[in-house]
Amino acid sequence: MSVGTLLSFCNVVTFEEDETKVLSLIYLLGAVVDWISLSFAMHVIAAILTNCAEVEQRNQIL
User: Fold this and answer.
1) Cβ neighbours of residue 12 under 8 Å, at least 6 residues apart?
2) Are 24 and 12 in contact (CB under 8 A)?
3) What is the pLDDT of residue 62?
4) Contact criterion met (CB below 8 Å) for 40 and 32
5) Would you say 24 and 15 are in contact if contact means Cβ atoms under 8 Å apart?
6) Residues 9-50: pLDDT tens digits?
7) CA dihedral in degrees (23, 27, 32, 35; nearest 10)?
8) Reduced to 3 states, what is the DSSP secondary structure of residue 59?
9) Which of 1, 21, 29, 47 sits CB 3.0–4.6 Å from 5 for a disulfide?
10) Could you tell me if 44 and 25 are in contact, meaning their C-beta atoms sit under 8 angstroms apart?
C-alpha cells in the first residue's frame, strides 16, 4: 500500500468529525482501487511484452 493510503487510514482512525471520516474513507477506497488497477495493468503490460518477444523470436527463426 502507498503512503497516501496509510495516511488516509490514519485519518479515518484519528479524526472525529463524521464528514471528515466519510471523505477519508472515500479517499482510502479510491487509493485501493487505484492500487488494484495498477497491479492489473502491470500484468497486462507484462503479457503484451512477453507476447511481442515470442513473436519476434519466431520471426527470427523463420
Assistant:
1) 21, 24, 25, 28
2) yes
3) 65
4) no
5) yes
6) 555 555 555 666 666 777 788 888 888 888 888 888 888 888
7) 170
8) helix
9) 1
10) no
